[in-house]
Amino acid sequence: MLHDPAQLDLMFQALADPARRQMVDRLSRGPASVSQLAEPLAMSLSAVVQHLNLLEASGLVRTQKVGRVRTCQIEPKALRAAEHWINERRLSWERRLDRLGDFLAEN
Questions:
Q1: What per-residue string of b and e applies to 20-39 under the rule 16 or more CB within 10 Å gives b?
Q2: pLDDT at 2 over 60
Q3: Which PANTHER family match (predicted)?
Q4: In order of start, what are the domains of the chain with their CATH numbers?
């Protein structure tokens, strides 16, 4: 997933929405049903399902339906991919700033 720019774009798009980030935050504490995820949100159940569909398409969340209950859980691999991408950029900038600091200290 990390090497697929389209998948990474979809993941960051999914995380760009506050409601979806709230769902991911809730799921980071453990699995939850769609109804449980919808409870604190000021939106219809169908809107929650649309948000979940995007989270699932991005790879951040996976769902399983047992009977009438759809249970969602976080996909840690996807979060690691986003974390890796961000860390690569952070390390690159830290190296650049360290070189700048060294240069400025010499002059």
A1: beebbebbeeeebebeebbe
A2: no
A3: SLL0088 PROTEIN, TRANSCRIPTIONAL REGULATORY PROTEIN
A4: 5-106 (1.10.10.10)
